[in-house]
Design goal:
Helix content: 25-40%
Strand content: 5-15%
Radius of gyration: 35 Å
Mean pLDDT: 83
Low-confidence stretches: 519-537
Strand order of the largest sheet: 1-13-12-9-10-11
Number of strands: 13
Oligomer: single chain
Distance between the termini: 56 Å
Order of helices and strands: EEHHHHHHEEEEHEEHEEEHEHHHEHHH
Number of helices: 15
Largest sheet: 6 strands, mixed
Structural class: alpha+beta
């Protein structure tokens, strides 16, 4: 049997650090023209600032940041310049993290391909020796050797860019940029593609400021829903209100978290806004976001004091089972199905609906924690790890582990439910081995995923996944050793051993008789005197 890896300890997942809500903006034709003109103008400034920041590379500092902000202030305003430079910094940092992730992925691919190329054709994997399996044919070996050289040259380019701090960013999105030369493949006309490209490159975002009126001086939304924005200096002629502001005819209403948003702007606390245009729907939206105070993380034992609802995440359903604090399954298993095929909004709605039902079930059972696996499939989507199993690769590629976990944490925080993450190692295998068959009855069919949820819950509670220790293999005597679940000698009111009844074990002869009775007297054995008198056990009382 191969060596098992060390299992990490469970931990409490911290809650979300921010909130974002969205509301529809029903603008008039005149308002749409003004918003588009302001967005395109600020978008051009953001594109130029990103180009300057990218050329600076690792030589960027606070002084160069101040120089960029002063240059932008002259053509727009100090607040718009601050928002643009901060967005540029965040975008550059995101691209930098993407470079690091790409280098790690390329190195992993190169290592796997080299290990498989070094093995003979058709060789099987040897886990004990740490040897990968060989490729199945000569043509596949040749194709993988060519891919190895391509990945190595690609890694060299990324490493060179990493050393000098050069990043590659497409404002508007790389996916949309690739559709420029063949928009018909996506069902777009050239004019439709230009509208989407224009909307994606617009910049209409402003950070909030605590102490300012309604929490934001650049894009302001009052308690009645009236929206106004401070126009850049170059577009001051479009203002229809004092101090170079433009007030829209449309009002904004936030249905979700509306009371919390109203409380923030009433106390003049910072709220950031972003206005964006959905070309496909022909609608304008405004997104409000703010930071929330970090909630104190409960200790693990306090979160699990009332038991836990353990969840095994699968590609088509969530398998849940409630466990008491001692690790015993209570009630019946629950399954919450969803469909991950179709459009993105359909998948999001399916996941959101399944998580809502899971949280309602958790509150009904009285548990205060949900145990989930700390899954990460970023390293398992390649063919080098799972071979020709295309179906499994597609499964883990479409499974939204990060999105599902983030959404579960955000939704659970609103209902004061703690999320506990556990190591996913061997949960499905050991759960099926120790729990699937014992819990299956004629009226209840326990699946492998239901048994895995019990394994997840017991690991979160700190109990071993195994149901109990194995009894002695030979018989009921102590020849093979006691079970480890025996009561300790110092335990009060534990079952004591029965007293030994003197005399022959077979009770076939009276004490003191037999062929070797004299020999026994001569050997001076213990309990010799007891053989000289008869002994009778008292009758059991019929009543206490």
């Amino acid at each position: 049997m191969g060596r098992l890896r060390e299992v990490a300890a469970p931990f409490v997942v911290p809650g979300p650090a921010g909130v974002a809500i969205r509301g529809r903006l029903r603008v008039s034709q005149a308002d749409a023209v003004v918003l588009a003109e302001v967005g395109v103008f600020l978008g051009s400034l953001a594109a130029g600032d990103l180009a300057v920041r990218s050329r600076q590379g690792l030589e960027h500092g606070s002084e160069s940041w101040a120089v960029r902000k002063r240059e932008l202030t002259g053509v727009c305003s100090a607040r718009w310049a601050g928002s643009i430079t901060k967005a540029t910094h965040d975008q550059w940092a995101l691209a930098r993290r993407g470079q690091a992730a790409e280098m790690a992925w390329l190195r992993g691919q190169i290592t796997r391909i080299e290990a498989r190329l070094a093995r003979p054709l058709g060789a099987k994997a040897d886990k004990r020796a740490g040897l990968a399996r060989g490729y199945g044919s000569r043509s596949e070996w040749h194709a993988k050797s060519r891919r190895l050289h391509a990945l190595q040259s690609r890694l060299a380019r990324v490493e060179a860019n990493w050393v000098v701090g050069r990043v590659h960013v497409v404002r508007g999105g790389k996916k949309l940029a690739r559709l420029r030369h063949h928009p018909d493949a996506a069902g777009l006309s050239p004019q439709g593609w230009r509208e989407r490209w224009k909307a994606a490159r617009m910049f209409l975002a402003a950070d909030g400021e605590s102490g300012k009126r309604f929490g934001n001086e650049t894009i302001r939304i009052t308690d009645t829903g009236q929206l106004s924005l401070r126009l850049p200096a170059a577009l001051a002629h479009l203002a229809n209100a004092p101090h170079g502001r433009y007030v829209l005819d449309a009002t904004v209403q936030f249905t979700h978290r509306g009371a919390e948003w109203l409380d923030r702007i009433s106390n003049n606390r910072a709220v950031a806004y972003r206005i964006h245009h959905d070309v496909l729907r022909g609608r304008w939206y405004v997104t409000a976001s703010w930071q929330r105070a970090a909630a104190p993380v409960l200790p693990l034992q306090a979160a699990l004091a009332r038991g836990v609802v353990a969840v095994d995440m699968n590609d088509d359903h969530l398998a849940a089972w409630r466990l008491d604090p001692h690790g015993n399954p209570v009630g019946e298993p629950r399954r919450y199905f969803y469909d991950l095929t179709g459009a993105t909004h359909h998948r999001d709605a399916q996941i959101r609906h399944a998580l809502t039902r899971l949280l309602h079930h958790t509150r009904t059972t009285g548990a205060a924690a949900i145990a989930v696996e700390d899954l990460d499939f970023t390293d398992g989507r390649c063919r080098e790890k799972h071979g020709r199993n295309k179906r499994f690769r597609r499964l883990i590629s479409r499974f939204p582990t990060a999105k599902l976990r983030a959404r579960l944490v955000a939704m659970a925080a609103e209902q004061d439910i703690t999320i506990v993450a556990v190591d996913p190692a061997y949960t499905s295998r050991w759960g099926a081995q120790h729990w699937q068959k014992p819990l299956t009855t004629s009226n209840r069919q326990v699946s492998r995923h239901d048994a895995a949820s019990i394994a997840i819950g017991r690991r979160a509670l700190g109990h071993p996944i195994r149901r109990r220790t194995t009894p002695p293999p030979h018989d009921q005597s102590d020849r093979a050793g006691h079970r480890t679940a025996q009561a300790r000698p110092e335990t009060r009111e534990r079952e004591e051993p029965r007293p030994r009844i003197p005399g022959p074990r077979t009770r076939s002869m009276p004490p003191g008789s037999g062929a070797k009775a004299g020999d026994q007297r001569a050997q001076h054995r213990s309990e010799h005197a007891a053989e000289q008198r008869s002994w009778m056990q008292d009758a059991l009382p019929l009543s206490p």
